[in-house]
Design brief:
The mean pLDDT is 91. The protein is globular. The protein has a 5-stranded mixed sheet. Helix 7 crosses helix 11 and helix 8 runs antiparallel to helix 9. Strand 4, helix 6 and strand 5 form a beta-alpha-beta unit. By secondary structure, it is an alpha/beta fold. It is 63% helix and 11% strand.
């Protein structure tokens, strides 16, 4: 268990624990690994929530001893969502994987860990498949692509004279507040079948155009992930001195963009906030 932030606390925890939950950032895992590895004695379990360190072990240098179990439980969402849904009695879907079963009991341990963190249900994967799909998803529809599509539509509406409020509502607010909950509950096909005939016809006519336009980008992205180039960029960038300063500048640019400033105003106007 990794309860603290200092190397002393981490090392002390590794000495005591039989299950070491290695939940630091990918860059921090590389830095701290020598301190952790020496306490991975026979029969212990090394638990990850992401396949990065093991899949790219030639780049990270993280190679566990052969006599320990190495497992993964990867919740499909943010830590804040995992906690919130756990408190609601729901749970977040998670994948699980076994990289190394030294004791013969790795599966029982990983299933117990998956239940313990509040998973809604568990599906099996491998460390490699987890990290390939995760890196592609983060850079794709989960964060990178969706922000790019938001920005493209918002800017197009603004360039044609629509107000910031109208552009934001038609681009982001309606999607996140009305449509995506319906997709989550019933699927995209159900939402198509239950919207206006005009919206239905337009969506059916245009979705393949967007698929065909973005498919080459996703193919390039997946290839970069599979080659390890995306992982190396992450390692190099996140390990630089002053990384946080650069990150904050990039986040500030996003946060202070007109679109997301319009979002701040729109959220304040939601009925539940008044």
């Amino acid at each position: 268990w990794i309860p603290g932030e200092t190397l002393f606390e981490i090392e002390e925890a590794c000495q005591r624990g039989t299950i070491i939950e290695y939940l630091l950032s990918d860059a921090a895992q590389i830095e701290v690994w020598p301190k952790v590895k020496k306490h991975l004695t026979a029969g212990k379990t090394l638990y990850f929530s992401h396949g990065f360190a093991i899949t790219y072990k030639e780049r990270t240098g993280i190679v566990p001893p052969a006599d320990v179990d190495v497992v993964l439980v990867a919740p499909k969402g943010s830590g804040t969502s995992l906690r919130r849904m756990f408190l609601q009695g729901r749970g977040l879907n998670s994948s699980y994987a076994i990289f190394q079963d030294a004791t013969g009991h790795a599966k029982e341990k990983v299933i117990a860990l998956g239940i313990g963190v509040g998973s809604g249900y568990l599906f099996e994967t491998t460390f490699k498949r987890e990290v390939y799909s995760d890196l592609t998803g983060e850079r794709g529809t989960l964060m990178g692509a969706i922000q790019g599509i938001f920005a493209a539509q918002y800017d197009t509406l603004r360039a044609h004279g629509h107000s910031p409020s109208e552009a934001f509502n038609e681009t982001v607010e309606e999607l996140t507040q009305s449509l995506m909950p319906l997709v989550a509950e019933n699927g995209m096909d159900w939402m198509y079948a239950n919207c206006s005939t005009t919206a239905q016809r337009g969506a059916l006519d245009w979705w393949k155009k967007f698929r065909d336009a973005t498919k080459p980008v996703f193919e390039e992205l997946y290839e970069e992930v599979a080659k390890g180039n995306e992982a190396q960029r992450s390692i190099d960038t996140n390990s630089k001195e002053g990384y946080r300063d650069g990150l904050n500048k990039e986040l500030k640019e996003l946060r202070e963009s007109e679109m997301w400033q319009a979002g701040v105003t729109v959220r304040k106007l939601r009925p539940e906030n008044n």
